[in-house]
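Appendix B. One record, verbatim.
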Amino acid sequence: MIWANTVDPDELDESVAATAHMFQARVDKVADVRVTVVGEQVFAVRIDNGRLDWRAHYPELTYTLIPCPPAVRQAITSYMRVYDLLFGAFDSSLTSEDESGMVSGPGSPSRSTLSLTP
């Protein structure tokens, strides 16, 4: 497995043409979120560890079950239906702007900038 790493664009040269790559802008995140779908059930978990790619550091992780915003839940269940899937895991970064709507308790704003389009 190859984990996410920081890449300096100035260090890229023609050698990247030899195989497929995926480059993304770095997001100033406060945590990660994994939304897992099993059948009709949707679970969202906040993952804290302060690393760029949490998947390479399982012993350092802490998990907190969080509410999934209705718009995110609807987008994910729609995606699952379109592709006739029974299981799915969707990872996102949580920014400070997302945080109030994604991880606060009952009565908090339900907005979130997270979105999925099938």
